[in-house]
Amino acid sequence: MDAKELWQRYQDWLYYHAGLELYLDVSRMGFDAVLVEKLTPEFAKAFEEMEKLEQGAIANPDEHRMVGHYWLRNPAISPNLEIKQEIITSIEEIDTFTKKVHSGAIKPPHAPKFTDVLSIGIGGSALGPQFVAEALAPDEPPLNIHFIDNTDPAGIERVLARLKNRLNSTLVLVTSKSGGTPETRNGMLEVKQAYAVQGLNFASYAVAITMPGSKMEELATEEGWIAQFPMFDWVGGRTSELSTVGLLPAALQGIDIHAMLAGAKEMDEATRLREIKNNPAALLAVSWYFAGDGQGKKDMVVLPYKDSLLLFSRYLQQLVMESLGKEKDLDGNTVYQGIAVYGNKGSTDQHAYVQQLREGIPNFFATFIEVLKDRKGNKFEVEPGVTSGDYLSGLLQGTRQALYENQRDSITVTVPEVNPKIVGALIALYERAVGLYAYLININAYHQPGVEAGKKAAASILELQHKVMESLKGAGKPLGLGELAEKAGYPEKIEAVYLIVRHLEANERGVVLEGDRSQPSSLLVSAE
Fold it and tell me: What family does this belong to (predicted)?
């Protein structure tokens, strides 16, 4: 395709949203009008299913739940008055609580004001808030935010060490739908102990974000935590950023949550349009379908050319992969669907993996995120007539062109700047694209049986660990791994027993291993 034809294709397929000043360019994806026409009947069904979703249809059959994250930014479309009022009330409570914290009306026992926020959560309870904090937190926020998002003891200690001298002015948000998520519970218990070591009453610093009636709510009520905010049964973790999960930490940092909600609502309205060329989420879904032949054959490489969007690819990784990575389709057929997502920021990663993107295995399509405004005010030139931002823009355009010249497909999303309204719109755009694409390929984007399977497997390992320790303490002599597995009641799980005792020994947990470490079957295990 020559330059003139390419320019015409760019204009033919360019989407522009005037209210958001957002552009979507899919001209460097190789699909044509024939594919769009072929997919039109499937899109018609997808639009119908999305409409049913917003009206309150059960979309998560595993848990018999509605999926209503779209209601969060427009309570008026909620399926009933009760849900509408729950949403409105939750936002009012966030506003009120935030004002009181910022003013000092709600304060810690031993300091005039809270200075920091420590957010404890995992998955959707962490990724969204982390992305938004990186993208939107002001340089001097009213409260600085920190995250514990794993059950890694060293990681937890590192965060607590940074807060050591300000723990007495740190507000703790504990986010868990059920209150039983092990990683979040562990983080909470570690933090609770850190407060106790400093002679501080954890409850005077703690806020729960959880489901009404959950174990977390019971604990918070029993201990007298500062406040509780609701999580909703009909909001999944990966789509929870515009619920209390993401809005409360954002508001505490001084981020305009109402602008975020407004941007998402505006994008929702744009992505309800049933004409594919005028619907940005539909254009993304067509592009994804074309790239991977409707089977996820190519990875999505996300390259935001703005430091503040560093975590956008990580946020999209969960949204896309947890939603689309499914073994079965809606008819029960084995299909092994999904789109792998990875990426980091441009132009940093032009020095990391763009070499392979241009000349290596063509197993991907790129998504460039372009931000038009470089910065406010300062127009410093690094050379005559050229700013650092000009270089960034040039590197983006050059990389896009270099990929195209070597038959590598790409999408470019262009926004005017990174602000709360735009971030809300980006969240909504990709949420809708995921939903539409899922219906195109006949899978359910709103359940995640694989995640539950992993949790159950982890629980079984911890149960085995308990039995291994009981068996060791009652043995009275060193045991071989086979003997130990037999005594614990799991003779077929010798490898799991080996991995357990190796971990326990490394952490001085009362286990000793003797023998040739390169030959695990020779090892003898005893209790200290």
Answer: Belongs to the GPI family.
Q: b/e string for 240-267 if b means 16 or more Cβ within 10 A? A: bbbbbbbbbbbbbbebebbbbbbbbbbb
One of 4, 351, 376, 379 is an active-site residue; which one?
351
- Of the listed 84, 102, 258, 455, which one is catalytic? 455
- pTM value is 0.94
Q: What is the DSSP letter of 232?
A: -
Whether 351 sits among the annotated catalytic residues: the reply is yes
Which pLDDT belongs to residue 451? 65
pLDDT beyond 80 at 455: no
| pLDDT-derived band at 340, boundaries 50, 70, 90 | very high
Known catalytic membership, residue 492: no
- In sequence order, the 6+-apart residues with CB closer than 8 A to the CB of 230 are 86, 90, 209, 210, 211, 212, 244
Q: CA–CA separation, 318 vs 339, rounded Å?
A: 11
* Residue 265's pLDDT band (cuts 50, 70, 90): very high
**Residue 145 and residue 137 in contact, taking contact as beta carbons nearer than 8 Å:** yes
Catalytic pick from 322, 370, 431, 483? 322
CB 500 within 8 A of CB 493: no
Query: 156-195 pLDDT, tens per residue?
Result: 999 999 999 999 999 999 999 988 889 999 999 999 999 9
Angle, vertex CA 327, rays to CA 325 and CA 330, nearest 5: 95
CB 507 within 8 A of CB 465: no
Phi and psi at residue 507, to the nearest 5°: -105, 15
Per-residue model confidence (pLDDT) at position 248: 98
Closest CA to 403 of 370, 346, 355: 355
The reported pLDDT for the residue numbered 352 is: 81
How far apart CA 270 and CA 149 sit, in angstroms, is 34
Query: pLDDT tens across 486-496, in order?
Result: 999 999 999 99
Under 8 Å between Cβ of 90 and 98? no
Smallest CA-to-CA distance from 77 within 265, 333, 336, 278 is with: 265
Does the active-site annotation cover 322? yes
